[in-house]
């Protein structure tokens, strides 16, 4: 038997943690949002406000609910405060195994016995984190995609020891916050969606790195052929190029295959401080990237 999930703790108030916390609060859950950095917690407020503007405009939430939603989210730099009454923790810190293992170890000590620990990792399987805890039956991967409220699915993946009760409790929780829970039937690095996205991203980077095509032409051809509004490079910019690099490094670390290493094109952008939308420059320049221009699909690179 597992307890119903009402109190959620989100660890990491970056791009993902902010949206996960908001999604839970929109559906009536009480949330602690924890980050080590005070400025990250502060930065999550305008980010939530901007998403709530869009949600209100779209009729997803009503204007008078807005304050009640925000009031359900408490912010803290103290992990012990955030963990103390959690039924479910969703960890969304940097994509590095050692950092995540430290966080899981700490949470295991601080959370009540019944608490389920989930990681939003893009590429680290729960089996690499579960041994940092004494509760491997109550840990799993809970992988969301951005923007959460307009892309409402989450991949749930168990490790060797995750119990059926844990899977069922989290599956039911995700449905209760308007998110479609997709079960990854076998442990797989990159789950379902990221395996496919990774193949596209890796080849898109190589095509440009090897001088075969331009960023813009890769995005154009992809968009026209797949009938989708976003190309691979525009999507990488919105994810954050540092996050993309970290994910590529995890694949590289696992395979040791040099073709899996992040290409120079990506490393050069990061070295130049060009991390995508969040720094105003990545493969495109923001807030008005070329790919949003109405003529973008009517031109080609020289
Ligand atoms: N960006 C995406 O589109 C995306 C999509 C799916 C999954 N993910 C995964 O979600 C996770 C977070 O990604 P993000 O894009 O939100 O990263 P981010 O860099 O925007 O945010 C990470 C936050 O974690 C905080 N943090 C770091 N160490 C911490 C610790 N020990 N305790 C508490 N807070 C800590 C940082 O201060 C930062 O605010 C990563 O594992 C990433 O792979 C990202």
Which descriptors apply to this entry?
302 residues, alpha/beta, Rossmann fold, N-(1-d-carboxylethyl)-l-norvaline Dehydrogenase, domain 2, eight-stranded mixed beta sheet, 11 helices, 8 strands, 43% helix, binds nicotinamide-adenine-dinucleotide
Layout of strands and helices, then pairs:
Elements: E1 7-11, H1 15-26, E2 30-34, H2 38-57, H3 66-71, E3 73-76, H4 79-83, E4 88-91, H5 97-110, E5 116-119, E6 139-144, E7 153-158, H6 164-176, E8 180-183, H7 193-209, H8 215-226, H9 232-239, H10 241-255, H11 264-271
Parallel strand pairs: 1-2, 1-4, 2-3, 4-5, 5-6, 7-8
Antiparallel strand pairs: 6-7
The site of nicotinamide-adenine-dinucleotide has 28 residues, from helix 1, helix 5 and helix 10.
Short description:
With 302 residues, the chain is an alpha/beta fold. It has helices at residues 15-26, 38-57, 66-71, 79-83, 97-110, 164-176, 193-209, 215-226, 232-239, 241-255, 264-271; strands at residues 7-11, 30-34, 73-76, 88-91, 116-119, 139-144, 153-158, 180-183.
Model description:
The structure is a single chain. A hairpin with an 8-residue loop joins strand 6 and strand 7 (153-158). The chain has 302 residues and is an alpha/beta fold. The model has no long low-confidence stretch (mean pLDDT 96). Helix 1 packs across helix 2 (38-57). The chain folds into 2 domains: 7-183, 3-Layer(aba) Sandwich (Rossmann fold), CATH 3.40.50.720; 193-298, N-(1-d-carboxylethyl)-l-norvaline Dehydrogenase, domain 2. It contains 11 helices and 8 strands. Nicotinamide-adenine-dinucleotide binds at residues 11-17, 34-37, 40, 92-95, 99, 103, 120-122, 144-146, 239-240, 243, 247.
